[in-house]
Amino acid sequence: MSAYWYSDRENVLVNSAVAFLVYDCVEHAGFTVAPWGGDGKALQDRRYGQWSATLAAKNGQKPEIRKIPGVMPEQPARPALSPEHQRAETTCTNSVGRAGFPELLEGLAGDLSVQQQITQNAVGLTEQDAEYVAYREAWQKCLAAKGLKLRAGDTWTVESSGSKEDEIRVALLDVECKESSGGARKPYDIFAQYQAAQMKDHQAELNALAEQKSAAVERARRVLRDHGVADARL
Amino acid sequence: MAWLMPDSETALSRHAMTRVPRWWLLLSCVALVVAGLVAAYWAGSAAAASAGPHYEPPAEIPVSATVQKRAVNQQAILTGRVVAGATSAVRASLPEGTDRLILTSTPKAAGDSVAPGELLAVVSGRPLLMIQASVPLYRDIKPGDAGMDVQALQRALAGLGLAVKISGIFDQPTQSALKTWYGNAGFEAPSPLEPVSAATNGGGKSSKASTVMFSWREFVQVPGDTGRIASMAAVGTLLPEDGVVAHIAIAEDTIVARANLLQAKDFAVGAPATVRAGSTSMDSAVAAVSAFVEGDESKNEVPGVDITLPIPAGAQGLSPEQSVTVTSGSVPPESLAVPLIAIRQENGIAYVQLSAPDGPRRIDVTVTAQADGWAAIDDGGGLAVGDSVLLP
User: Fold this and answer.
1) Cβ-defined contact of A53 to B262 (cutoff 8 Å)
2) Options 2.40.420.20, 1.10.540.10, 3.10.620.30, 3.40.50.1100; which CATH number does B64-73+333-391 get?
3) Staple partner for B295: which of A106, A204, A214, B301, CB 3.0–4.6 Å?
4) Spelled out in words, what is the top-level CATH class assigned to the domain B77-84+251-328?
5) Does position B217 have pLDDT exceeding 90, yes or no?
6) Chain A interface includes B74 (CB < 8 A)
7) pLDDT tens digits for B340-363?
8) Which residues contact A103 (CB under 8 A, 6 or more apart)?
């Protein structure tokens, strides 16, 4: 499904293009805008909790965060804006909106796109899958044997005392239990199978989305080039 | 006026619909079509026959790998650095009657070891002698003086092999021992400015020349009593205001590496480890493991524990702050091994397909370790070095 959503890098390009278009509007209103460096972040997929012992040893239960380089060099902090300037920025942000760029990001609230529906269906089907249910039961049994509990209201996060050391130790035990229950990647594999089955049924729509995404990214690159961003950063 | 325009479509249709009264023309057309089909079939067959051998699907080419003897073990590798051992500064005090501290001479150089009894340096013409750290240096000791410091001095002198009785009084034998120490270093022990009476000096003649005093400024100490000179001022130089003559390393350099909690399992105290710096490789063992350290993302420091290893005796080419890698464990033993992709699974049982003249044969195996794309397998599985196993 990653072909139908923006990659982290593509998302930075599109967001930067939108920002430049907003700033064009602000400048048109008579204000000068400091260019924005941009600095995206990518989160490790942890739909079914922490799955890597190496990442657990580094981050505990927290997802891996990596910085996506922006399209502009690092910028100094923006000075305080005058009320008029702020108003102009707000007006332009509202009027430019997404500047016609489609929102192709996984997990956006209210997203009814086909790829979002496929994901939601795959999640639902995975959670009813007998192999998945057996896996989860084995994992929970293993956690209980180690004296660990799941955080209330959260189905995949294991409770810890709160200290960094304890969080990491608990995260490592969590992954250990997943490995002994059939492999930490098992739920993802089951999920991927359901997802693939549904993608077959919607291939035409997905192909259209892939084209839409390519066109949006290409347009974003054009906007950025027009605003002086070097090709090396695109 | 559309209705005035000629209706060309209607006109054409009318023309096409006109029947042709020549029946033989239809028969001729049918015969021509049949002849064309026959000719096309013949031409196609001939072209196919001349195109070469018949197409056959390619036969599957078996890909195999050879069973080998190799060391397969997942070893944790840490990045560490050489941490300089603690040092202690040795300071000189201005001798009586001098204005400046000049390092006159020294028998020592950087890297030399130092121990009590030795002459460390000569500053402004007076010696700096190494004395045990147990002697409290806070006053000059003159003949007849008594106290705990005198007792400690006597013990120190005795420790150097000099004949002295532990009386707690700076008596004649103690002074003689001190004189001998100074003499061995090539200096005369200082004398008290005031003459000392025979009674005060524990008997003997009342003479200034025959008595000596302990001038604390001419002695230096280091914690632990021994060490190695890390740095020394150059001879002839004016010492800084704080009088530092040398820095003595009182603890050896060590190697410190951060292990995350997953890696820390392989680095318990006493566990063997291999230290590598450039082309140098040396065996060591974990000497200490710190408490948990949170790490600092901005400095690229992962949370975990700090592993400390001593630098093996005689190790060359390691200097403070140098980067090293620390690998857990010693070299693992060799065992039978196959590429990991050769391992197949069925109902939870691992097996390989042995390539045999009479066709592939299934051999069940027990995987004992896997690393770097290789799987170590139990020797009792019916495989031998040199056997070929099929890759899927």
Assistant:
1) yes
2) 2.40.420.20
3) B301
4) mainly beta
5) yes
6) no
7) 999 988 776 889 999 888 888 899
8) A111
